[in-house]
């Protein structure tokens, strides 16, 4: 079964969030179920440099101009992935990240950049490359969501299409003026197409046109069909009925493996937790924290309202008064960044802050911190808590989305059964967050209980094994139709 996966970022080549981790890890997991996946992504400079640095020899495949822009495809195998890299210098050869310029501002032509990705993906799906015609096209998030729209608008035979929502908050809505340049039939400017309250809705159009919608956890699938969680698309999503399926994300347990992780100070396992203490000492040194026996709580996240990190910043003094040391790694909203930096200035030996994204540092923090705070107001799946489970860094999470699906709360029954893997609280506000931290501290002060929680967490199945099986089954069901 051939699958063309289309994504705007793919780990380890380019990453801003969990989408990249999913797009990078799922193909190899699907291979175990008879799926041959080729992943298509834009030819950002960092991607082309990675190909050059690896000494890979891509096959250069011609492609007709895409939305008026000269383009070609590089077919290459890299980092265990089969890739189609869309080389289109006019759209992707620029400084900055995949979505923003060097100053952090969205590229004004993002609509064109990702419409081109979708348009090129649709062409490839319909045989633009000799010898390659997929059975399934799997598009990820709004950046690839026009792919099923282009395919549905074509009179030519097309593969079956799956669209995965990684975060409904990002929908790709643009002014109606861009529609004439999308090379779509006039009929797609409709309620049943891409028109969305007078604008062009990339995600909205894809949700109408695809054969199947998936999202990244069962609980999030239930949340997004409600008035409160649907972000304006709940009616459309309710209308998809059984064509909306929630499958929880996994992680690459080879990359995230405390027994072999090259980024951490000392390797350890569920059977050898004593060695984990070396990583705690390393974190204290790296962040300039006072060395002591008390717990280190961590934040590794985008510092945004969605992630609830304003709650942690607001409760920071209360947390520190309880003897906690805090480590923060991430970037985001200026007010939240500033609040954590101010806390560090007041107590530099108790609060460590690194503003910015650092993949290897996140590994070290997960290996060295005792608990990780994830008080998200909504969370489609979340991967940070999965990393925490894998590394015995106990997650303290809000009861939303995938957080609720992947963490077992340390209530009396779960603790007694040795099944607890974290602390869950609701609703996400400062008072409940502090109460959850108090619960976690009570457990931490019982070393035998805490160790049991760490062991249960590390033995949790956070891999792609089960979820890849579910995706493969969905693909096969679509082909049977």
UniProtKB/TrEMBL annotation:
Domain Glycosyl transferase family, chain residue ranges per copy: 290-451
EC numbers for this chain: 2.4.1.21
Keywords: Glycogen biosynthesis, Glycosyltransferase, Transferase
Coiled-coil ranges per UniProt: none
Pathway named in the protein's UniProt entry: Glycan biosynthesis; glycogen biosynthesis
Binding site for ADP-alpha-D-glucose: 15
Gene Ontology MF, one: alpha-1,4-glucan glucosyltransferase (ADP-glucose donor) activity
Domain Starch synthase catalytic residue range list: 2-238
Function: Synthesizes alpha-1,4-glucan chains using ADP-glucose.
Name used for this protein in its record: Glycogen synthase
Gene source species: Jiella sonneratiae
